[in-house]
Design brief:
Length: 119
């Protein structure tokens, strides 16, 4: 029903920037919430940034002021602009779509894109 494809990962030096994109296809509802998560080796997947109800955004404390999430509703695409990257930002970044239908929450994930920040 929903497919998410991330692009834009790569290798960058500390202090550099990358822009990730996530293009969605399939069936979408107005209440769907999209965002970005990441998972570093040996760690749990964590929220990086996401759109929540009312068009508001939330960010992990570790990325506030450096990362910006944005979207193009017409293209069903969400972006993550990452500036001032640090080695600790190294992880696989996943696009997420969260949906609630009849009280049941569904999560859809992209395949992930590797971001590596060298010191």
């Amino acid at each position: 029903q929903v497919q998410l494809v991330e692009r834009g990962g790569g290798l960058v030096q500390a202090g550099g920037s990358l822009r990730l994109s996530c293009a969605g296809s399939g069936i979408f509802f107005g209440g769907d919430a999209m965002g970005w998560y990441r998972q570093a080796p040996g760690k749990q997947r964590e929220l990086v940034a996401a759109f929540i109800s009312g068009g508001n955004t939330i960010y992990a404390d570790s990325v506030k002021g450096r990362f910006t999430i944005s979207r193009d509703n017409a293209k069903v695409t969400v972006y993550l602009q990452m500036n001032s990257l640090k080695p600790e930002d190294t992880a696989v970044y996943y696009c997420n779509l969260a949906r609630v239908l009849s009280g049941v929450k569904y999560n859809y994930w992209g395949q992930g894109t590797q971001v590596t920040v060298s010191s």
